[in-house]
UniProtKB/TrEMBL annotation:
Domain GyrI-like small molecule binding: 101-173
InterPro entries to which the protein is assigned, alphabetical: GyrI-like, Reg_factor_effector_dom_sf
Protein name per its UniProtKB record: GyrI-like small molecule binding domain-containing protein
Transmembrane segments: none
Pfam assignment, any one: GyrI-like
Superkingdom in the source lineage: Bacteria
Organism: Pseudonocardia kunmingensis
Length: 177
């Protein structure tokens, strides 16, 4: 069966403001800093008493430009990884838990935003056509990207064959001004 990465229709969603745990970093996902950030997010979340399964999210930009992203140059990626924070999390509790793991985990509350979203099926390295379709949808809708794109990992890459990975790709949008 052929792997069609554009099997879904793009959609617009309004995401509410929410508390999240974040770690910021740079470089390719294969680098130790990325792996350490993922571990730290889930360890701090568990230390705060939340053990339910939640997807990891990552926002990516290139060399400090929030609207640029080059799949072929991951060493220049700037990323913010995040997971939902437990409802009772406080900055102090997060700082205490993060110190136990030696991790720069922070509690943040991003504002609500409108996003365009499209499901990508398959390896992360093959996201190019899906991202292009998403940005084309944004332009056709008379919108403009308002920040870096985010990937919401719906499947675990350590337990899922690359061809079966599912990732929501989304980009915050605003109207033309």
């Amino acid at each position: 069966m052929e792997n069609d990465t554009r099997t879904r229709t793009p959609e617009l969603l309004d995401l509410p403001a929410r508390d999240v745990l974040t770690v910021d970093g740079t470089g390719a996902p294969e680098m130790p800093a990325f792996t350490a950030a993922v571990r730290a997010l889930f360890a701090v979340r568990a230390a705060l008493g939340s053990r339910d399964d939640v997807p990891l999210e990552g926002s990516y930009s290139q060399d400090g430009d929030p609207l640029r992203f080059d799949l072929d140059a991951p060493d220049g990626w700037h990323w913010r990884l995040l997971v939902p924070a437990p409802p009772h999390a406080t900055p102090e509790a997060v700082a205490t838990a993060a110190a136990r793991f030696g991790a720069p985990v922070h509690l943040r509350k991003p504002r609500g935003q409108r996003v365009a979203r499209l499901l990508h099926r398959g390896p992360y390295a093959d996201e190019g056509p899906t991202l292009a379709a998403l940005y084309a949808f944004v332009e056709r809708a008379g919108l403009v990207p308002a920040g870096p794109h985010t990937e919401v990992y719906l499947t675990d890459p350590s337990a899922t064959p690359p061809a079966q990975l599912r990732t929501h790709l989304q980009v915050p949008v605003s109207r033309w001004v």
